[in-house]
Every structure is written in structure tokens, then in C-alpha cells.
TrEMBL record:
Residues 10-221 form the DNA/pantothenate metabolism flavoprotein C-terminal domain. It catalyses: N-[(R)-4-phosphopantothenoyl]-L-cysteine + H(+) = (R)-4'-phosphopantetheine + CO2; (R)-4'-phosphopantothenate + L-cysteine + CTP = N-[(R)-4-phosphopantothenoyl]-L-cysteine + CMP + diphosphate + H(+). Residues 15-225 are annotated as: Phosphopantothenate--cysteine ligase. Its cofactor is Mg(2+); FMN. This is Coenzyme A biosynthesis bifunctional protein CoaBC. One of its GO terms (molecular function) is phosphopantothenoylcysteine decarboxylase activity.
């Protein structure tokens, strides 16, 4: 973590990290969410802070906690709130890592009262959320470094490369599915990193803290080499 001068690699840098799921409200007691734990994003935030960055962690509903100094936690619920916080913080950030599992759709309307069950089916109309990673990619200046994630169940390499290009990211971390199938709820990850310059780096399955080190090593490499 220290550079040639004995300073932390990322001293003086500001990093924005999203983590966890988002909850999209249907009515006052129900929401559309997902199984993201926030552990991968937290591990990245902690690794960036250990290396000296000032970290702004935009965290959806999640049980994870951190006590590391240098991490400012912005708690949010919805994709819309996560978008607003990221848009406010990104202009002054040097590094942005979008590891949240952001809902792709949100209810068109949130019912003001609890929806009562009636006969027949219930239809909830959904509208697309804003793509935070893509929006930051459009705003990105030359010196800002933008990292996205991808989790796919088919054609993973092609979809990851598509995301690298379409979102104007510098790096996409492809999360491979666990052998058991599901991607969530594990303390390990197996990733492949796709970089804008064409590098593809395949890593072994390892604890999320170690995966975070691998990702931050690539960030530091791109920033300084
Ligand atoms: N992402 C985001 N905002 C959204 C949706 C996704 O910032 N509204 C980010 C995620 O945090 C991740 C990357 O985009 O870094 C890719 O997310 P993923 O769900 O894999 O891809 P999508 O672009 O949403 O496409 P799809 O779900 O159809 O594969
Ligand atoms: Ca998605």
C-alpha cells in the first residue's frame, strides 16, 4: 500500500463507492429488492481507505458496518436516491466503483396506503431506473477512473465487454456465478477484470477482502502507470 516515498498509494484521492441492494417501495410496507449483501462493496471501500483515499460509501439497505476512519457512509434506500447522491459526489471524485446491485425497475407509483388483497391478479407497473454507472460514464473527465461490475448467467465475457464500452468504464469486474449457482450470500468471489486497454485478468476464487485488494491494485496501476 505505500509508494516509493513511503506515502499511502491513494493519499489525497477521493473515491465514491456504491454497495448493497436498493429497495423500491410498492406501498408503505412492501418493496422490490434483491439479495445483495453489500460485502463486496464494503471490502472495496475499506481497501481504498486503507490505502489512504477519502471514501464516500453510498450504501443501500444492508447490515454491513464499518469502523475504519476515512469512510463516510451515505445511507440510501432507492435507486433514485443512490443516483442523486452519486451525481452530487462524482464531480469531486478521482475514483468511482459501482458495486451496488441497483434495481433496474421501480414502481411507477407508490401506494400511499397498504395495498389490500382483492380477488384476481395484482399488476404493478414498473418504470426503468436511471443507470448510475452509465450516467457517470457520460460525465467522466480524463483523470477520473470509473469501475463497474457485471453478473451474468450466459455469454458473460461478451456482456462484460459490452458493458465496458456502453458505460464508458475503465474497468469492469465480472463476477462469476458460484458452483451452486447463486451469486449472493457468499464470502468469496471469483472475478475476471476487463480493462479498457484490452487487458483481461482472470483470478481464482478467494475471500472478498482479497478480491478487493486485486481490484484496488488494478485501480492504482491504471492511475499511476
Ligand atoms: N448499475 C448502475 N445503475 C443502475 C443499474 C446498474 O449503476 N440503475 C451498475 C451496477 O452497479 C454495475 C453495472 O451497472 O456496476 C452493471 O450492472 P448490471 O445489473 O450487471 O447491468 P445492467 O446495465 O443493469 O444491465 P442488465 O441488468 O440488463 O444486465
Ligand atoms: Ca441490472
Amino acid at each position: 500500500g505505500d509508494n516509493f516515498f513511503g506515502q499511502k498509494d491513494l493519499a489525497g484521492k477521493k473515491a465514491l463507492v456504491t454497495a448493497g441492494p436498493t429497495y423500491e417501495p410498492i406501498d408503505p410496507v412492501r418493496f422490490i429488492g434483491n439479495h445483495s449483501s453489500g460485502k463486496m462493496g464494503l471490502a472495496i471501500a475499506e481497501e481504498l481507505a486503507r490505502r489512504g483515499a477519502e471514501v464516500h460509501l453510498v450504501l443501500g439497505p444492508s447490515a454491513v458496518k464499518t469502523t475504519l476512519p476515512g469512510i463516510y457512509v451515505h445511507k440510501v434506500q432507492t435507486a433514485g436516491q443512490m443516483y442523486d447522491t452519486c451525481m452530487a459526489e462524482f464531480p469531486s471524485a478521482d475514483i468511482a466503483v459501482m458495486s451496488a446491485a441497483v434495481a433496474d425497475y421501480t414502481p411507477v407509483e407508490t401506494a400511499p396506503e397498504k395495498i389490500k388483497k382483492t380477488s384476481g391478479t395484482l399488476v404493478i407497473e414498473l418504470t426503468k431506473t436511471k443507470d448510475i454507472l452509465k450516467s457517470l460514464g457520460q460525465l467522466k473527465r480524463d483523470k477520473q477512473l470509473l469501475v463497474g461490475f457485471a453478473l451474468e448467467t450466459a455469454n458473460e465475457r461478451q456482456y462484460a465487454l459490452d458493458k465496458l464500452a456502453s458505460k464508458n468504464a475503465d474497468l469492469i469486474v465480472l463476477n462469476s456465478l458460484n458452483d451452486e449457482g447463486a451469486g449472493f450470500g457468499y464470502d468469496t468471489n471469483k472475478v475476471t477484470i476487463f480493462e479498457k486497454g484490452g487487458n483481461e485478468l482472470v483470478y481464482d476464487r478467494k475471500p472478498k477482502q482479497q478480491v478487493a485488494k486485486d481490484i484496488v491494485d488494478r485501480i492504482v496501476n491504471i492511475l499511476y502507470v
